[in-house]
Structures are given as C-alpha cells and as structure tokens.
Amino acid sequence: MRRWIINKPDEKAVMNIVNNTDLSMLCAEIMSSRGVNDIETLGEFFNGGELSDPFEIKDMDKAVKAINKAIESFELICVYGDYDCDGVTSTVVLYNYLESMGANVMYYIPERDDGYGLNREAVKMLSEQGVSLIVTVDNGVSAIDEAEYIYELGMKLVVTDHHQPPATLPRAEAVVDPHRIDCPSQFKNLAGVGVALKLCAALDDGNYDMVLEQYADLVAIGTVADIVKLDGENRIIVSAGLELIRNSENTGLNYILDKCGISRDSINSTSIAFGIAPRINAAGRFGSPICAVKALLEEGEDSEVQVERMFELNNQRKETENQILESIIAYINENPQELNQRVLVICGKGWHHGVVGIVSARLVELFGKPNVILSVDEKGEVRGSARSIPGFHIHKCFTYCEDLLIKYGGHECAGGLSLEEKNIPEFCRRVQQYAAMNNPSMPPLSISADKVLRGRDMNVRAIESLDLLEPFGEGNPRPVFAILGARLSKIMPLSKGKHSRLELEYDGVRFSALLFGTSPEDVMVRTGENCDMLVTAEINNYNNQKTVSVKIVDYRLSGTKQEPYFAAKNCYESFMLGEKIPDSFVSKIVPSREELVSLYKILSRYVNTTYDNLFMRVGNTMNYCKMRLCIDIFDEIGLVLNNPVSKTVSVEKVTERKDINDSELFIRLQNMQK
pTM to 2 decimals? Predict the structure, then answer.
C-alpha cells in the first residue's frame, strides 16, 4: 500500500483565477493545489515570453570568442559529450551547428565502461588526432585534473555543463554552467542540451530563431530525458520541441517515431520519456552512444540501420534488466527476511552496470523501500546504483559510509558508488545502522493527488482543458485525481484477462476505469462494494468520437485507514529485525487464539490473496502487525503458504489437525505478554 496525499485547492484563489483568465475551473483547481494561487505566479508558469539572452550565462561571451577563433583559423574542434540521452542530443546539436558554420569539427563520447566525462586516455587520443579545442557538453565542470592535462598537451578547453560545480572550477577558456555561484542568469534548471542550445544561439549573435527551428526537437528530447523540471524556460523549449517533432525533418528521429508507433498528432512528453529516450539511452548502456549520434545525424538508409541497432540494444537492455530482477527476486525468495530491512542492499556478480539503476528503480516500486544494487565484475571491482524515496536521504547515507567507498555521488533519492569487494559486508551493516539511527520508522512510498474529482468534472470539455497544462513531466506531473466512495457495479476482463475494466457509479455519473496489470479475479474490491481510487483522466479520440478515458493509478476498499497501516507495518519489520518493541505495543500486536481462528476463517474464503487485500477486510478489528504475525504463525505450522515477495498468502490443504502451540513464534509472543 502507498500513502495517499490528497491536495486541496484554495477556493478563493481558484475563483480569482477563473474570473481573470481563460482557464477552466478544473485547471484552476489543479494549479491552486500545486501552490499557484495568484495571477502573477500563474503567468510565470505559462510564460509565453521568449528565452532569456544566452549571454546572461557567465562566460558565454568567452566561450563564443574561443569557438569563433577556432572556426576562423580552421582548427580542429572536438565536441566532447556524454553517453546518456541528454549527452547524445547535446553532442548532435552542437556538432551539427558547428559543422553548418563551416567549422573543422569532430565529436567524441566515451563509452560507459570508460566512465563519465573527460578522461586522460581520451584527451591524449584527441591530442594525437590534432584537436586544438575541446568543447564539452553535459560534462566537464568537475574535471579539474583532466583540464590541466588538456593544457599540458597544448590544447584549449571550453566547458558547457549543467551539473553542480565544485568550489574550484577547471582551467578553461570558459566555464558555461548556470549553477556557478557567480552566474547571474535567472533560469538555472537547464539540461545539458539546453545549455548547448544557448551556446548555439550565442554563436548566432544571441538569436534563437534558427537554432530553435533546427534543433528544438532534439533539445526537447534531451530535456525530458534528463528529468529536469519542466518549468520556466524548459517549458518553452519542450513546447517548441513537441511542435517541431510533429513535422521533424530529422531522418533518424522519424525512423524512431515510426518504429515506436508514436503518432505525430498525439506526441507529448510521455511519448519522449517512455518511447524515444529509452532507445537513445540503450545505445550508451549496451552498445556505443555513437550509434545514437549517427542515427540522429545521418540521412537515408545509414540512419535507418543505426535506428535498428538502437532498438536491438534496447531489447537487450530489457532482457538483461529482467534477468537481473529475476536473480534478485530469487535471492529474496530464499532470504525473505531481507524484506524486513529498512534498506535493501543486494549484491550480484557481473550484473550490467548500465541497467542496475533501472532495476533499482523497479525495486522501489515493487517493495516500497530504498535499495542499493551492487555489481562485482570479473576484476573484483564493485559499482552500484541506489534509488530511494523522499524522507530517506541516500546521499547522506553514503556520506556516513564514505570511509568504505572509493567514490560516490547523488542526491536524496538517487545515487551511485564504488567500493572494494572486501568492504561489502561492513557497508551493508553501516547502511542499516544509518537507517536505524535516522529513520526508526521508514517513510512509505507516496502518491499525490491534485484534488478530489467530482462527477461534474468527468466530461470531455473539462478533461480536454487539461491539455493547456502540457507539457507534463518533472515539476509538472500529469494530474492525478482522487475518487472517493465509487460503487463498483461490474468487472470485465481485457486482453484475455491480463487487465480489467471496472464499471463504477460515482457522484451521479456512471463511468468505466481501466486497471492495467490486474486480472478480474485479482481485483481487491468486489462488485457492490465502495472503493477509493487515484486516477488519471485523458481524452480518447476514436472514429472522431471523444470520450473520457480513466486509468487507475492505485485503489483500495473505501474506509481503509492508511496511517495505522504504516505505523503497524514498521512495527512488524522492527519486531522481525529483533529490535525491542515498546511494552505498550506488545498487547496490541500479540494475537489471541480467538483472533487466529477468526483470521483463518477469513483466509479460507480466498484461494489466494494479498496482504493488503486481507488488511482491507480486517483492518477495523486487527492492526497490520498482528495480521502479519498471524500469517507467520499459520505458515510455520503449515496452514498457509506465505510469499513475502509477491505479498500473497493462500490456505494450504491440510489432512491432519494443526496445533497453534507447535509454533515457536506463537509461544514467543505469548511469553512477551508475561
């Protein structure tokens, strides 16, 4: 179960917005629930103005001067990029622009195994090829030693980056990074490709017209892929890019769109995030990022060949990702006690470094816990990726362990690290120690809803008005709505039972909602019962007939109490870790024989059920911790089959009488009360 956070708009502010703008009531309520409660702030959000002068960014004038000098003297310039989608699109944009200016230019992107950013081997190789000026995109601001080496070899450096700079900047002709503390530019949240776009505009005397007309599509893709906030200037860039993608002349991009089956008419930021970006990223993860660069630069059949290769690599990525995930699930099945840890730390041999971060993110979704995935290669070198949830700061956790680490980085919810194999056991212990000290009760995974949806909102005109809030993405997510107390009247299978369609009655309207990944028999609410849901709503246009399409994000039986659930869940995990339970809690978690009998009778009504479904049925009379302990007792004496990984329990067929006193856990719990 996830914690639901249902926001509430300010009614007075909403009416002010409605009376003074063309926004619908529903849009105004969403903006208010997100903290936009005045016309001025609303205007900043929709900002229909122009991008700011690129020369506002510190050192932009110096960068232009250095690059123009190299162009005029026909010195060899190298655009030095990064292997992710932001880095690839940055490389393509700047390389193509410089080439169009008549520059003597090449590009270079290190392979993933070479590591991120500038490295000495690549710098030496570029020097040997006759490069005079290296211009970085999406990297370089932390490359202090490599920058010195560049100048030792007689070359020059221009850095363009968007990452947080260190206290000391690298030696360079210019360091163009909006995050410099001495940079006066107002907008700081550009992706690397956004900085590259501004450099191109600066090289065109500060004019954005041509560079947006040529490159807005690629800049939008890199911006969305890098998960920077889609506000301010990023909103302008992505909006322009989405328009250009619909009529893009980029051969490789069009091949990608066609092969993904993405309609030009309905393309949005979601299409980029889940369709285009993963294919570009796959090249850097599993093959070479040069494949993606060539796909976006070349014309005709050559571009198509590279796109085909990108799709092959993406399939390999998916397959490898699933293999690693299956290995982790197999490990947890054999060691289910691991799921009681506050942070999952799991290590494997030879896991592909390019996908462990994706697997880590999937584990957060599966188990609702921060996790660190470590991979040991054939040389005994250990690298890892981590994903967390708001409330548990994974970078601070790494800092607590820094004496054990070779290198680490990240922020609250994501990080990476490397360490020696001999330090893995102590690292695991230290992570749990940090978590216990700082988060005795771990924060749950949460979902936010913008508002409670009313029956009158569920019409084509209201839902269609949400298009004005596009593009959706980081900092401006697609609206999520709460529907509370909808009566379920019918459940129908979709795609041969892989998914379900629920027919519901709510606030005077009848509607259907799609529940993906759940078969009708696994729906946790029965017909005739009331349920609460978090949903998204979009317009479906079929045969020129527009209808409202509702998709369920999460759901539960009406009346389910979430805060007692999370408190008791933390208590259960703490108990299973052998930690001391407060005396006042003991009587609340130890089940009586009568409670065990009662719960077993309820379980007997189901062939197979989930912990959450069972809690929804008994939560008013039994807390989650006590319920789980009952299940563990039943499992110990063979009455049920308990699967902590799938979070399911099913009643076993028994041929002989079972005695509760045969459960060591039951006896131990009873003794706790004495």
Answer: 0.89
